[in-house]
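Re: [ENG-882] Designed sequences occasionally contain unexpected residues at chain ends

Forwarding the minimal case from QA. Structure tokens:
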């Protein structure tokens, strides 16, 4: 039974039970189900407003018509009518929607909800026919069995900031007679899918030109298309049927994320690819299609097929700068604050965006800043609020035991005071669990970055490292090491002169960094592959005589971010150690090495282990 409901429908049932509790009614009925559906702003509730049916109007009708239960409200018991409605909805479809629940509620032809709708002078028959047509249309479309209808999945309360230009270009392209297929090109994380979701939101809100009103955006995935097509010809037939549906329904806009995957999708011996099937329809303008891909994959796959590239109008989606990213986070921070019960001030949010840009140079905004915001709030909730609750619960337990002891001793006045304190602590615990909001600080962000990326930013962590190193090394060396660790926002270089002993191993243990030895250009692949997954590493160059490696290290120290095999690898958290055993002391940096050096640490004699 439960596999028939997604998370949204399950939330509707919980909200129906909550509505019954708030209204102090005995049973959960169809009226509470309808209230729960109307409670949230969705494309469905927007459509119901056309019939003058809203949460406020229906709630007022329910409250004035039905009487409350005298005494305590019992457990949630569903009425037989509501159970029949749910059973019919389950029989009709594999995935029950809110629209199905209202339709089968009206299909019953009786019940409290229907009587109230009639009492509000709502045309129940017109509402029933409207929902029937909508459900029939959706049921008959194979597209909706494979793809996702964004018009119903998007949250109308969300909005996207700073992408009006890109959205206007998409709308302009869709309105063309020919070549009306926009292709969004941008790095992963810049918000290509969010732009298409905003277009769906504008369609639902009627904030688009008349030609796009009532259009449906259906998101397709190549994995869903290919699944279940084991034999030759099945994939072509499945895709052709879907395209024919799109052709016969001009109000459908296909959205294919990672559209480069369709270039060879389905192609096998004796078969043709998805792109070859789509090309004629795209060329004639029979279907409207929005694609999304990265610049690298666009050049590698789409541009390589000139005929396919001509069918699309490329729209470049650039990464938003820090100011625009801050504006985006300002619009969504309340959503995350309500979820985590943790708040963040605007000034701290600016710091978060800046630090995300500094310590995630190989990723893109707004995705990296949003992920850091989510991580920080989760960290604060776990480490701070939960600790407060545990302390309060421990205090409550001690108070309860103390109260019992006072009662046994006959000290009823002291026991009463303990009882008052006990009730106060229970209220405080309840407040912490449900309402309390801890405010994120800059230190919290730094703690998450240090823990998540295994990097050193705070003075506190630097002190821990240096205290561990002080056991075996003199103060001068510790001071130089401290200067290096303070420059954690970029790759740093150290030159070791003389007999350095176990210094590298001791440093690796103290800061928990992996050690990578690079002798010449033959180890370059190993270095990149290691840093790719372990950005916080110590790169040791014991004896470098390679010009290729020298030039690469110069580039790394200059840019921090280096392109390698079509992707960028960040060295901003790494430490490069150049070993120079035979060089006399006293030379300046440029005479010792062509690579810029931050600190020269000299060992006049071998240090103790």
């Amino acid at each position: 039974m439960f596999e028939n409901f997604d998370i949204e429908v399950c939330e509707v049932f919980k909200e129906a039970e909550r509505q019954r509790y708030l209204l102090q009614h005995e049973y959960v009925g169809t009226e509470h189900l309808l209230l729960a559906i109307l409670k949230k702003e969705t494309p469905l509730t927007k459509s119901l407003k056309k019939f003058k049916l809203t949460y406020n109007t229906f709630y007022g009708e329910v409250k004035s018509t039905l009487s409350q239960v005298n005494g305590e409200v019992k457990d949630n018991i569903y009425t037989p009518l509501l159970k029949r409605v749910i059973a019919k909805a389950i029989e009709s479809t594999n995935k029950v929607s809110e629209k199905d629940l209202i339709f089968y509620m009206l299909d019953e032809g009786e019940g409290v909800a229907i009587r109230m709708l009639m009492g509000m002078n709502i045309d129940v028959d017109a509402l029933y026919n409207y929902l029937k047509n909508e459900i029939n249309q959706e049921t008959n479309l194979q597209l909706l069995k494979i793809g996702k209808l964004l018009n119903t999945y998007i949250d109308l309360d969300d909005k996207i900031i700073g992408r009006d230009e890109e959205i206007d270009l998409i709308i302009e392209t869709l309105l063309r007679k020919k070549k009306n297929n926009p292709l969004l090109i941008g790095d992963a994380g810049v918000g290509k899918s969010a732009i298409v979701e905003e277009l769906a939101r504008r369609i639902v809100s009627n904030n688009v030109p008349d030609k796009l009103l009532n259009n449906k955006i259906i998101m397709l995935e190549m994995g869903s298309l290919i699944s279940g097509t084991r034999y030759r010809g099945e994939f072509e037939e499945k895709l052709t049927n879907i395209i024919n549906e799109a052709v016969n329904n001009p109000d459908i806009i296909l959205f294919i994320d990672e559209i480069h995957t369709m270039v060879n999708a389905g192609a096998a011996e004796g078969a043709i690819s998805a792109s070859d099937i789509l090309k004629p329809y795209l060329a004639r303008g029979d279907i409207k299609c929005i694609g999304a891909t990265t610049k690298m994959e666009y050049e590698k796959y789409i541009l390589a097929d000139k005929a396919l590239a001509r069918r699309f109008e490329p729209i470049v989606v650039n990464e938003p700068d820090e100011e625009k990213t801050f504006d985006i986070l300002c619009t969504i921070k309340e959503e995350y604050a309500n979820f985590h019960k943790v708040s963040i001030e605007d000034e701290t949010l600016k710091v978060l965006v800046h630090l995300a840009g500094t310590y995630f140079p190989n990723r893109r905004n707004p995705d990296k800043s949003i992920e850091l915001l989510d991580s920080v709030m989760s960290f604060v909730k776990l480490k701070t609020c939960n600790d407060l609750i545990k302390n309060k619960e421990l205090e409550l337990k001690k108070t309860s035991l103390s109260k019992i002891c006072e009662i046994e001793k006959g000290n009823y006045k002291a026991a009463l005071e303990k009882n008052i304190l006990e009730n106060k602590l229970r209220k405080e615990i309840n407040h912490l669990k449900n309402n309390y909001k801890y405010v994120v600080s800059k230190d919290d962000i730094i703690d998450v970055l240090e823990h998540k990326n295994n990097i050193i930013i705070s003075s506190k962590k630097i002190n821990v490292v240096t205290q561990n190193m002080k056991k075996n090394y003199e103060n001068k060396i510790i001071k130089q090491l401290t200067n290096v660790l303070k420059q954690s926002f970029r790759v740093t270089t150290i030159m070791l002169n003389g007999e350095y002993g176990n210094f590298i191993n001791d440093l690796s243990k103290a800061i928990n960094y992996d050690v990578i030895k690079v002798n010449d250009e033959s180890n370059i692949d190993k270095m990149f592959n290691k840093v790719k997954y372990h950005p916080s590493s110590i790169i040791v160059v014991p004896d470098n005589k390679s010009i290729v490696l020298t030039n690469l290290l110069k580039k790394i120290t200059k840019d921090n971010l280096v392109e390698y095999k079509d992707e960028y690898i960040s060295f901003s958290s790494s430490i490069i150690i150049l070993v120079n055993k035979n060089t006399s002391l006293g030379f300046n940096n440029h005479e010792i090495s062509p690579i810029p050096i931050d600190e020269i640490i000299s060992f006049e004699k071998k240090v103790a282990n």
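QA comment: On inspection the terminal residues look reasonable. The first helix runs from residue 7 to 23. Proposing we downgrade this to a documentation issue.
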